[in-house]
């Protein structure tokens, strides 16, 4: 299997090339040249998640050197539980946040780190990643102390929760965290600029761990495939998924699972007040803009990069509209939903997951799987301002809370970042601000 650029069907890349490059040479995103159709009827209902993963991914890995490691990659990436439960009649919840940093970003980040470990290189890799809150910690945890790899994390200062910041900055060794004076979109822009900048490109083997990297999307296809399969086998009915959406990576993965033939009835996106997708569906105009700050901060994205991948799948406006629906949820609705779900279902949910639960109320009575993207304890300031309760911290977080933190502040300019990063590497000392 080869992969193409969203902007040019003729450019062909192997999986390893896609993972190393992040973006195609023409600035497009990588997409598989086709979606292998998988006959899930052949799978045993009790198939393990790791075994299932290998079956779903094998075609994408075919003819690539990483193919030899597929079993090991899956086994080492997916080594935490994925609870799936019915909340009430017809509403199910898929908890994707039981990994080491308590958000679904652990799936993609761990898988990508496993892939990088098996890619041979002459130069040290520098992984650069912009984070709206959860990617940073997932990538730090997944790449910590990996040989031959440095990680630069850019997060928008003051715009993420305290727990998120702690999880991003409680590392040493090969992990460098920068608090950027700007928004997530500024951070994302800096990553793009570094990629286009010759002096960065020449001095380092730059790679990205953002969801533009296809090595993050492929592992996310699996949970949609697996749980739609399990659901269908059990209830003989196809479920729909409601997905909290920001940069649209997780949602793209769900559409890819559907394209591969898995029994997904429909997919609905829930966003916070950043609603460029909803606007595109309604008007046919895609107008990226500065992100607005909301309670669901990991979805504060005004220019979702994976839109380009969905646009290729549904290439005219009508087709897009017929396949993708979206709901934009306000902060007031998020608060109300967190309180309601706690009262009615005795469940604590994070602000991102709340957008999906709120959307669920606006839909029909068919079966819906709400995708829970982060553990509520990461947002305890928000939650404790709504419900008089003390969040309990799982052991993954408690362990991190004991660690010392370090980060460097930087203006949202690539030259400043280069200066600070190089200084640090040369002096081998890190200014501690926290
Ligand atoms: C990243 C994130 C999202 C949004 O996912 P995308 O793939 O960017 O659409 C939603 N919820 C949480 C908790 C996240 O960390």
TrEMBL record:
Residues 3-78 form the Threonine synthase N-terminal domain. Its cofactor is pyridoxal 5'-phosphate. The modification N6-(pyridoxal phosphate)lysine is found at residue 105. It comes from the Bacteria. Pathway: Amino-acid biosynthesis; L-threonine biosynthesis; L-threonine from L-aspartate: step 5/5. Residues 94-358 form the Tryptophan synthase beta chain-like PALP domain. GO terms for molecular function: pyridoxal phosphate binding; threonine synthase activity. One of its GO terms (biological process) is threonine biosynthetic process. Its EC number is 4.2.3.1. SUPFAM superfamilies: Tryptophan synthase beta subunit-like PLP-dependent enzymes (SSF53686). Keywords: Amino-acid biosynthesis, Lyase, Pyridoxal phosphate, Threonine biosynthesis. It catalyses: O-phospho-L-homoserine + H2O = L-threonine + phosphate. The keyword S-adenosyl-L-methionine does not apply. Pfam families: PALP (PF00291), THR4_C (PF24857), Thr_synth_N (PF14821). The keyword Iron does not apply. Belongs to the threonine synthase family. This is Threonine synthase. It comes from Silvanigrella aquatica.
